[in-house]
Write a structure and sequence with these properties.
The complex is a heterodimer. Chain A is an alpha/beta fold. Chain A has ten helices and 15 strands. In chain A, the strands form three sheets. In chain A, strands 1, 2, 3, 4, 7, 11, 12, 13, 14 and 15 form a ten-stranded mixed sheet that branches. In chain A, a hairpin with a 4-residue loop joins β11 and β12. In chain A, α1 packs across α2 and α2 packs parallel to α3. Chain B is α/β, with parallel strands linked by helices. Classes of the chains: A alpha/beta, B alpha/beta.
């Protein structure tokens, strides 16, 4: 049953060296605070899964925490490339990482299959695409009814998934709103799920019945971290810090600058520092 | 700015916007396609349905998003769906009329590379990868591509087939069992190109105002084919230019306006 815990404890209790872990968020609601806590606790040999690895995976890979990355778009959205990830893939720095690359459709289907308890996902994809030649996990099956050849990929079943959400009620049910991405599937596909939230409210009694709510018994731990998604955003709470994404391109371009930034902004900071980072991004929306 | 009163990039965006129709359902790639799609919506195609892969359907942003998942897209959308639903029901389900893509590397058959420069396993440059593009390229009814011309970008042979266009040309799509049309239009900063009906090789059908054959060839890595009867692309109208520039001004202000967080 779900526990409300300080983030430090929630991460320590649910993440282990060598785990397969997803920190999901599709541009919106990226669990930055949870990723930074994982960095502070210095985990190693992680298999990092995410459709759109952005700054937090650049940071974790730059800090040498990953042995493998599974992804479908490894970029700084709208800005360019991820320079720490590039350094690992192109130059083996700080060490080489294994790469498993898919398309968005492939990963979205694989998460859904994981949530559905299936061994694999079947869809119409990768036709003529080079990824099918370089990723042995992209195979094909023939439809037994029509004979159509379809793509098949193994389902994604993380040991643990971290997401950020708008709010929890006192019982620990979680509401996700706005661009909901792949978070529900990533939580239900995982053995354990940890959720950071902007706030806790008394109850969800006045909510529309069709909203995306994760029942408390699907979640291992909840931590209250206002601003915990920065520089991503939380719909209804604060805007995306686009300037920070632009700035990251310069920080990550240089290994020493990156290390200094990580020391000052992650290692020497805590989850409590996130609220102040979004003050200027809050608006009366 | 040339003496024409508009830049090649403005001409590209405006020409791309004109290709979209009011009843299109368009899956929008980030960057140049996003600008073109929104200029279309703000001028001749007010009811166009713009879809971004973050799940926002029928979005009408006031400023161009920096990412495919900016809050503005969700706030102005008819509905926002989960990412698996986006790819399964809406794209794979055959609901998209136009997939609008950009490209890092493009060949003359409309095949796109956004994955790596060099060898896949030992890349010279690791690019972001395909994201939604591999399936957009095959599940959308048609594909439009827009990019500024450079010899590095438009190449004889791409390093990786991120998204399949016409493959080796001819009926290659059909041979792979792909029943959608694939790339039917390429809009660059210099010209409008369409695939030859038989070979599927992109052929210049219209030059933008003031552009020469030589300029098109010098900024393209393959030997360019020109249609016999070449059109001249009409220059951007005052409304088109004003709409695009206002959009870019609003966008710049909005993205800078977030300011730099004290601790980022």
């Amino acid at each position: 049953m779900v526990k409300f815990l300080p983030l430090k404890q929630a991460v320590a209790e649910n993440l282990n060296n060598g785990d397969t872990v997803a920190f999901e968020g599709f541009t919106h609601l990226i669990p930055t605070a949870a990723a930074h806590e994982a960095i502070r606790q210095g985990f190693r040999d992680l298999t990092l899964i995410r459709m759109t690895p952005d700054l937090i995976y650049d940071q974790m890979i730059g800090m040498g925490m990953a042995k493998k990355i599974v992804f479908s778009y490894v970029g700084n959205p709208g800005v360019g490339l991820l320079r720490r990830v590039r350094d690992a893939i192109e130059n083996g720095l700080p060490h080489s990482i294994e790469v498993e690359e898919h398309s968005h459709a492939g990963m979205a289907n694989a998460y859904e299959a994981g949530a559905a308890g299936l061994p694999c996902a079947v869809f119409r994809g990768y036709r003529g695409a080079g990824l099918a030649d370089v990723n042995p996990n992209i195979k094909s099956v023939t439809c037994p009814f029509t004979g159509e050849v379809l793509a098949a990929v193994p389902s994604i079943r993380p040991d643990v998934t971290f997401i950020h959400a708008q709010k929890a009620d006192r019982k620990g049910n979680v509401l996700v709103e706005g661009i909901i991405g792949i978070q529900k599937e990533a939580v239900l596909a995982a053995s354990r799920a940890v959720v950071t939230v902007e706030e806790v409210v008394d109850n969800f009694d006045d909510l529309h019945p069709n909203l995306t709510v994760l029942p408390r018994w699907t979640i291992a731990a909840i931590s209250v971290v206002p601003g915990g998604s920065h520089p991503s955003y939380a719909h209804g709470y604060y805007m995306r810090d686009n300037a920070a994404y632009l700035e990251w391109d310069e920080i990550a371009a240089d290994r020493e600058k990156f290390q200094a930034w990580m020391q000052a902004n992650v290692i020497e900071k805590s989850a409590d520092d996130f609220a102040a980072r979004v003050e200027h991004l809050r608006k009366a929306a | 700015m040339s003496e024409l009163g508009f830049t090649p990039n403005e001409m590209m965006t405006v020409a791309a916007s004109r290709a979209l129709r009011n009843d299109d359902v368009c899956f929008v790639g980030i960057g140049a396609p996003s600008a073109a799609c929104n200029v279309a919506r703000l001028t001749h195609a007010p009811d166009i349905t713009l879809i971004y892969e973050s799940g926002t359907i029928g979005t009408a942003p006031d400023v161009l998003p920096l990412s495919i998942g900016d809050g503005e897209l969700c706030e102005t959308a008819v509905t926002t769906v989960a990412v698996p639903e986006m790819f399964r029901y809406w794209l794979q389900g055959g609901r998209i009329s136009i997939g609008f893509l950009g490209a890092a590397q493009l060949d003359k058959f409309g095949n796109i590379n956004t994955t790596v420069i060099g060898d896949y396993f030992h890349p010279k440059t690791r690019l972001p990868g395909g994201g939604g593009a591999p399936e957009i390229a095959t599940s959308s009814k048609e594909i439009y591509i827009t990019m500024a011309q450079t010899k590095r970008g438009m190449v004889e042979k791409i390093d990786f087939f991120t998204s399949f266009g016409h493959g080796e040309g001819g009926d290659h799509r059909k041979r792979l069992g792909i029943d959608t049309a694939g790339p039917t239009l390429l809009i660059t900063d210099l010209a409008i190109w369409k695939p030859d009906p038989v070979t599927k090789e992109f052929t210049v059908v219209s030059l933008h105002p003031g552009v020469t054959y030589q300029q098109v060839q010098e900024s393209c890595g393959w030997v360019v084919k020109f249609a016999e009867a070449l059109d001249e692309t009409p220059a951007p109208s005052e409304l088109e230019l004003r709409t695009l520039r206002d959009l870019q001004t609003r966008t710049k202000a909005a993205h800078e306006g977030t300011g730099k967080g004290k601790a980022a």
